[in-house]
């Protein structure tokens, strides 16, 4: 016999009873509302990016078009890093390595007369997959500071390897004569190139959204909280984390291919630890563990860097001070964001009244 207290704690229709229909309806409405709140800022951001070519046409030059293209490409790389950093808790201090692999794939193949974007991308992805799998397999044997230092060490190894390739420019970098060729598009046209970058960014955002909200994404987020518990639940956590690391690297490789075509240049500095640090900073500025936080962080990073270093507003004697020591003012901005916007620019905005990933 059940006690009176136990009977009161059970549903009226028994232990196996389903929740009332209105409870299910309220839960469905709450989920629908949450998804709308999540998609509204995403839609607004992409609409703003679509309007950039219109503004560029109105101004009569492509300066801001190229600037936003660079921000989107770095944002794409940061979104790839955010998959393992923001959702998986794996701090990679060598992710710029994969940007360099993508850029040098374009530069080296162009030097040998291979200008097809599809061929260059296929080679970059193939090399990136092999390298990221081997590095990820080794790095994931440890975690914490060990993981950080090993990813940094591998990136520096490839950095000095690029410097040693004198036939491909060495320390001076590798100039690229022309942008890659793509059937149906003229990538020499800055407007068409911008739309291509925007389309790839949108596709990557959609795939990452689906990935993060899938069972795979749930396991990755679970590994961030407690890897041992995921093992106890029967999930091969190391395999999931390795797969996430490879996917993250491939997104950065794709960004490297686009960056080489934008700058018409491939340099060892693309693999340097400083650029890896910049990618981490973009994730933190925008918001770790958010879909478009790294993109917003990249836009803020590139935009503020350009604004402070050129200072288009006349502030008298302060103008020269800001342009000369713009890195100091940039650092103050970062400190303020970290102190007062713990979830980043995008994360703090979307967290109001919505679930945070």
Automatic annotation (TrEMBL):
GO terms for cellular component: plasma membrane. InterPro entries: ABC_transp_permease, LivM-like. GO terms for molecular function: branched-chain amino acid transmembrane transporter activity. The chain crosses the membrane at residues 39-59, 71-90, 121-138, 144-162, 193-212, 242-267, 279-302, 322-341. It is a multi-pass membrane protein. Keywords: Cell membrane, Membrane, Transmembrane, Transmembrane helix. It is found in: Cell membrane. The keyword Transmembrane applies. PANTHER family: ABC TRANSPORTER ATP-BINDING PROTEIN, HIGH-AFFINITY BRANCHED-CHAIN AMINO ACID TRANSPORT SYSTEM PERMEASE. This is Branched-chain amino acid transport system permease protein.
